[in-house]
Design goal:
Mean pLDDT: 95
Oligomer: single chain
Strand order of the largest sheet: 1-11-10-9-12-13
Strand content: 15-25%
Number of helices: 18
Number of strands: 14
Low-confidence stretches: none
Length: about 425
């Protein structure tokens, strides 16, 4: 793994390199995605079923596109019961964490007849996209569905690709059922996003679409934004480890590799103040990589976007971490809590040598759907907030409005909006 000194130039080059991974850099796919979306919008089920045959080789129609209760029961029988038990434990941790995020309506009244407030309302329908390509991720099902359940969403609709025999991954189905998904449809890709955004004869339109996917899914979500809400345009996974000389090199290497194995575009970065640690981590990575099942993906990921940066001071390392704004940030220093207070930009922050990144992926409770590609500077993890909307409440009595109505009239007239002014004045005509 390459080792570089952290300088202004290396930081600039690194940031430019990482930005190449953004879905916004793959504009050559946009025409194909837009064509799929428009065809689904116009032809509905017919287009969805046609694309499913073309891309997945599955004969899906109006009678079999929705997963049945029998198929879910069959899925439970195919999944290791120990995994079911683990998923139930994880589910409770995720639910408990997100329960603390709930917001409630509030009202503030005054004696003169003024009432102001905020009404919190769950979304009516949420759509959850679940990938079904090279691997199945039941953990992502739990992470995307449970915040919506806690928020009180009325109907949760899930779409996920099926295989050529029309079967959905059993672990995905079991996780969806445990989490409380209401309807599951055997559709993937950009056509699934279009179906959720506009509705078809078989698949209902939703208010918001969440969930990860390939570049076609990401660009489709971007294209339908405005017709529906979306969580974010997710990019490839990334981890940044901030470490000093006290860190265990084996732990650091193992944690970097935990993200590098996702795909060839994943990013794994170590920023450290210790040259010795940098060398040891590089050596440990070579040892681990030789033993791991996804060795080819790991090696390609590290070749493309793997870096070890040696900083002169811890503050320089922290500044670089804030500039990179990583999806996952591990702090392995002598005083991780003190360093954490100086971090401004990160999706999820892991403190100390026993809080490795997979703990957050699977079990701890905080959401693992996180901002990528530097968007942690202005985006947050998926949460209950993503599945609610807020309405402002305003009520005034005549007695409360009278002392200030002329102020409002003046404000409106200053903007040459005479109808606005009149709407207030008419209430105090003699």
């Amino acid at each position: 793994m390459r080792i570089l000194n952290l300088t202004a130039d290396t930081r600039k080059n690194l940031l430019e390199d990482l930005l190449k991974r953004s879905p916004n850099s793959y504009k050559e796919y946009e025409d194909s995605v837009n064509e799929i979306i428009e065809k689904v919008r116009a032809e509905k089920d017919a287009a969805v079923f046609s694309y499913t045959r073309q891309f997945d080789g599955a004969q899906v129609n109006g009678q079999n596109v929705q997963v049945t209760r029998e198929e879910i029961t069959e899925a439970y029988q195919k999944v290791d019961q120990k995994l079911i038990t683990v998923m139930k434990k994880s589910l409770e941790n995720i639910r408990s964490y997100h329960e603390k995020q709930k917001q409630y309506s509030w009202f503030d009244s005054r004696p003169d007849g003024v009432l102001l407030g905020q009404k919190v309302t769950p979304l009516a329908r949420a759509g959850v996209y679940v990938p079904g390509g090279k691997a199945a991720y039941p953990s992502s099902v739990l992470m995307n569905v449970l915040p919506a359940k806690v928020a009180g969403v009325e109907k949760i609709v899930m779409t996920t690709p099926c295989n050529k025999e029309g079967k959905v991954n059993p672990a995905t189905l079991a996780a969806a059922d445990l989490a409380g998904v209401d309807e599951i449809y055997k559709v993937g890709g950009a056509q699934a996003i279009a179906a959720l955004a506009f509705g078809t004869e078989s698949i209902p339109k939703v208010d918001k679409i969440v969930g990860p996917g390939n570049i076609y899914v990401a660009l489709a979500k971007k294209a339908v934004f405005g017709h529906v809400s979306i969580d974010s345009i997710a990019g490839p996974s990334e981890i940044l480890v901030l470490a000093d000389e006290t860190a265990n090199p084996r732990y650091v290497a193992a944690d970097l590799l935990s993200q590098a194995e996702h795909d060839e575009l994943a990013s794994a970065i170590l920023i450290t103040t210790s040259q010795a640690l940098a060398t040891e981590v590089s050596q440990e990575i070579d040892r681990f990589s030789a033993e791991l099942s996804r060795r080819e993906i790991i090696e390609q990921s590290l070749e493309n976007y793997g870096y070890i940066l040696v900083a002169d001071t811890l503050m320089e390392a922290i500044d670089a971490a804030n500039e990179i704004a990583s999806e996952h940030l591990e702090i392995l220093t002598a005083n991780p809590f003190e360093v954490m207070m100086k971090i401004k930009n990160a999706g999820a922050i892991f403190l100390g040598e026993y809080a490795s990144e997979p703990l957050g992926d699977y079990f701890a409770g905080p959401n693992h759907v996180l901002p990528t590609n530097g968007t942690a500077k202005f985006f947050s993890p998926l949460s209950v907030d993503d599945f609610i909307k807020k309405s402002s409440i305003i009520s005034y009595s005549r007695e409360a409005l009278k002392p200030i109505y002329q102020d409002i009239v003046q404000f409106a007239q200053s903007e040459h909006l005479t109808a606005h002014a009149n709407s207030i004045k008419v209430r105090f005509e003699e």
